[in-house]
Amino acid sequence: MGKECSRCHETKPVNAFRPQRTFCKECEKSARQARNAKPTLDTTPMAKVEVPLEPVLLIPDCHIPNHNERAWGLMLRVAMSLKPKHIVILGDFADGETLSAHPATKPGEVSFEQEVAGVRKCLDQLDALGATNKIYASGNHEHRLDRYLMSNAPAMFHCIKWQNVLTLYERGWTWVPYQKSIALGKLNITHDTGTAGINAHRQAAQLFGGSSVIGHTHRMSYEVRGRLGGTPFLACMLGWLGDFEKAASYMHEAKSAEWVHGFGVGYLEPQSGVVHLQPVPIVHGKCVVNGRLFT
Question: Cis omega before residue 281 (within 30°)?
């Protein structure tokens, strides 16, 4: 006389079951082996999904020709390795020292023509990187030209513009007027939003209601904040590339010591518009980008 197993539902001899068990010895053995078996990892190779990230170079205040040539050269070496598709100038790329309304602290060493020549030379170096999208967000130092013309030659106000002086349109640059902004994906870009304090980057992100990067402060700070049910947003400022002795001669050395040399690199996700931005501080003439030391 047989008995049906409650697991495999097969009818087997009574001696194939342990006393008072409803399942057979074979099913019991299988269950025990399954419990004692070590977990195994699935080593089947998965298809690799390539995300087409687009490299971004972000350049803070340079104050050319009063820039730090060593810091500028280091940034260029990183840029040649990065091969950026997007280049963003965050304003005060030109110093405009000859146009300054501030009283001179020493005799001028360069003419406006020499200043322009210096800025053009640096733009030539950036153009050689081959980026397809180039943004020039002007700053308060570029705005010096408008103020100078309105005070001294208002009839020429509409004739002389940085865009023309630097041949920016011919070079393929997008010009963003001072106190205006532009977006690269979901990253808002402007020179400043009216302040240069240690919290200027936070104020900008709050005003935009999302990720933003600014120039102007010559400080470096990076903060990511989350929000309920939304994408985390970034508030960032990236230092400067100016020469302390030339571009900061109007202020006490202890105050300008707060400023740091640096710039930014990032990667844009074209589909989502998110820019993964990384500040790059320059320490003792060196910096690290993508695990590589540049000197």
Answer: no
Q: Please count the structural domains in the chain.
A: 2
Q: Are residues 167 and 252 in the same domain?
A: yes
CB 293 within 8 A of CB 78: no
Which pTM value belongs to this model?
A: 0.81
Query: Does some domain include residue 180?
Result: yes
Q: Examine the domain organization and report whether 138 and 23 are in the same domain.
A: no
Q: In angstroms, rounded to a whole number, what is the distance separating the alpha carbons of residues 78 and 148?
A: 36
Divide the 295 residues of the chain into consecutive groups of 10 and give the mean pLDDT of each group.
81 84 84 75 64 94 96 98 98 90 61 94 98 98 94 92 96 97 98 95 96 97 90 95 80 75 97 96 97 97
Question: Are 142 and 23 found together in one domain?
Answer: no
In the 8-state DSSP scheme, what is residue 15? G
Task: Say if residue 137 is exposed, middle or buried (CB neighbours under 10 Å; 0-12, 13-18, 19+).
Answer: buried
- DSSP one-letter code for 82: H
Containing structural domain, residue 231? 54-294
